[in-house]
Structure formats: C-alpha cells, structure tokens
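quick one if you have a minute, typing this from the bus. below you get a single protein, a line of residues and a line of whole numbers that encode the local backbone shape. could you go over both lines and see whether the tokens make sense for that sequence. anything you notice is useful, everything is just below.
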Amino acid sequence: MITKEYIKELKINNIGELYRLMQEQKDNRAVLFLLENLGRLPSNFDGKRFTFLLENKNAQVRFWVVKNIGKLSDTSYLEIISRIATEDQNSTVRREAISTIGRMRTAKAVPLLIEMLNDSDPKIVLQVIRALLVFKSNIIVKEKLENLNNHPNEMIQSVIQKEFFPQKTSSDSSMRHTECLDFMKNVVVQGDVRNILKDVPDESIHLTFTSPPYYNARDYSIYQSYKEYLGFLVSVFKEIYRITKEGRFFVLNTSPVIIPRISRQHSSKRYPIPFDIHPYLVQMGWEFIDDIVWAKPEASVKNRNAGFLQHRKPLAYKPNPLTEYIMVYRKKTDKLLDWNIRRYDWETVKLSKVLGDYETSNVWKIDPTFDRVHSAVFPIELCNRVIKFYSYKEDLIFDPFAGSGTLGKSAMNLGRYFFLTEKEEKYVERIKQELGNKLPFTKEEPHILNIESFQKLAKREKEIR
C-alpha cells in the first residue's frame, strides 16, 4: 500500500522506484494520491517522467502534474506548459499552467503571456497579469497592462488601477490614521445631519454604524416620494464616505419596509430599501464586504400571517419579517486591511482583540429593544458586536441618525469615542437621560451642541490645524 511516508522515503532514497510507481498506476485515484503527496521535490527530480499524464482525461490529474512541474521552476518545461495554458479545456488547469509559467520568471514567456491577455476568461487574464507584473518595468509589458484599465471586468480594473494608477486619498497628512479630533470626541449635535457634516473634516471617522429612518413608516420620517427618500440617504452616505478614514468601515442596518394600504380596495406597498440603496453605495466608492442577517424572535414582530393561517389560499402567503440586514462596506483603498491594523501600536491592538466566544456565522440572533420614547432602537448587543468587530480602542464611532444614542453608550462602554447627530429634539433629550451623567466630558466644553456651537468648534479646530 502506497502511503505518504512511503512516498517521502522514495523521494530521498529510491527516486527510480518513485518514477516506476507513477508510470504503472492505472487507477486515477492512485495517481492523484501520488501527485498530491509529492510535496517538495528534490533538485534532481525529472518532471518529464510524468508529463505523459498531461494527456489524462481527468482534469485533477492534469492539474496536479502542472502544479508539480511548477515546483521545479525549470524553463525547459516552458513549451509543454505553454501548450497546456492555451489548449487545455479546463480553466483551473490553464490557470495553474500560467502560474507555473510565472514561477519560471523567464522573458521568453512574455510574448505568450501578452497574447493571453486577450483571453475571454477573466480568471485566466488575472493569472496572466500576475505573471507579467514581474516584467512591468518592460515598456511593452507596462503599456499592455495599463490598457487593461478599461477592461470590462471589475477585478481586472481593480488590479491594474492599484499597480499603475494608485488612488490618491484626501487624507489630511497632519492627522494620523489612528487619531480623532478632540472637538468631535463624545459629542452629540442636534440638527439636520446634512448641515452638520459640512463642518466635519475629511477622513476623521473610523467607523459609522447606523440605521436610517424608515421610509414613511414613522412619524419622524415623511418624504414626498421613495425617490426623494433614497436621494436623502445618498446625500448623507456620500458625506460619510468623505469623512471616513481610508479603508475603514461603514455598517448599515436596513430592512424592507411596508407602507400600509389605504383601504381594502388597495394594496399595501413593500419597499426593498437594502437592495435599492446598495447600487448607490457601490457607485460612490464603498466596497461591499459582508451581509449579516439580524434575526429576531418571531414573537417580537408584527404578525402578517393571520389571514393566511385561516384560509390557506395560495398567492396570499405573507411571512412574518424576522430579519433585518446589517450591510458591511469598506471605503475603497489600494491598501490591505493589514495596513490599517499596523497603524496601531501593539498595546492598542492587544487591548482591542475580540476575546472569548463570538458569532462565527452571518446570522446574529439578537432580541430587539423597545423604548418608551423611540420606536426603533438599536439593541446594545448589536452595537457591541459591530464596534468590537470593526474598530479599535479610542477610535471615533459615528451614528448620523442617533435616535436614543445606544451606539454612543456602547462606544463608551467599549473604550471608544462617539460622535452622534440627531434631528429630533425629543430624542436628543433621551440621549441626555441615557448618557448624561456617564459621559467622560471635560468641564470646559459643552458636548451636547446645536449646529451653531458645533460650527464654531469646527472653525476653531481648522484655524489651529
């Protein structure tokens, strides 16, 4: 019986026997076992001993032959691997062949790779780009790659833009990535968020988590049309994009909303807010990261199923809406997450780690919270999870539609600063009751502000900086 240990022993002590085993195997499962467990190959390994398997009908066999040849980084295999890259019928095998060619790092492969930039499979083109980037100092290669900036595939565009047209950020060089401005720390501003954000500096927020007002489903959010409502959200979210630090997160809690019918002769209307707002967010530069489903107990939501329960007539089924969407977006950047993490000192990273049990799936089962003043309140547990997963200690957390201020309470409990805006006076009063005596405010400055007071602080800060 052939085992991993036996293969390892043959590689070291009897390479000829290993060649013979590969030649004699008739069962593809046995062949695959051999190929998958070859591991690191000795410098004297003769890859030509298994190139006959490149004609095997099993794509997995061909894949592993190519992968093992790639370990040799030997240009003598360029011709045969080039044939596989261009002629094989399996996309995965072709990509591995291009990867193998890339490992050879030979200029002889450049003409073939340039030709393959025209391949109809974007995954093939991406692998070719990776191989050609080794030669991007070559004028011809550079020109060919730059031309792909107009390629129809968005992933290809993204790679080319990062390599040749790096994004210019609006970051204020005088403000470190981890820094937040003192005049915005633990501040609540009453007023229209669109007016308030005009005085918030670029790239000054680390994380935004919010739930916008429902479309005409509450007394505090009346709009002439759904189009006007979406336009309002777009105007706010564009400003949030501007004030968010490079590569940081925007987490949006929304759900479809039902506008009741005016009579039995008319239908109600259901608006898919999360799905309608998403294209606008992507267009303004937010990159979609994750969709998290907030699941509530069925007993906590309005029952829409009573009629169907009685008559059971098809077409009239209406499920009870137990879920809301937590949509996670990241501000577009060429930099990886590691860049953001490395901005922090080790002590901050250590203190910010998410310890103990945590939800590993994208379904968060959290009970809703009911408030005597606000009809749609964030559960503190929901805020806690978002803040812990998407920010560090002493980051500045923003909620443009603060409501009763739960996000501020959570931020404070978790060692972050908060910046909240809220239009309705009664909700600002609720925030005062909820947070007033617990805030780590200084005595010199008021921290629950009207727009005029906030504008003065912003102007003073700008003059100082």
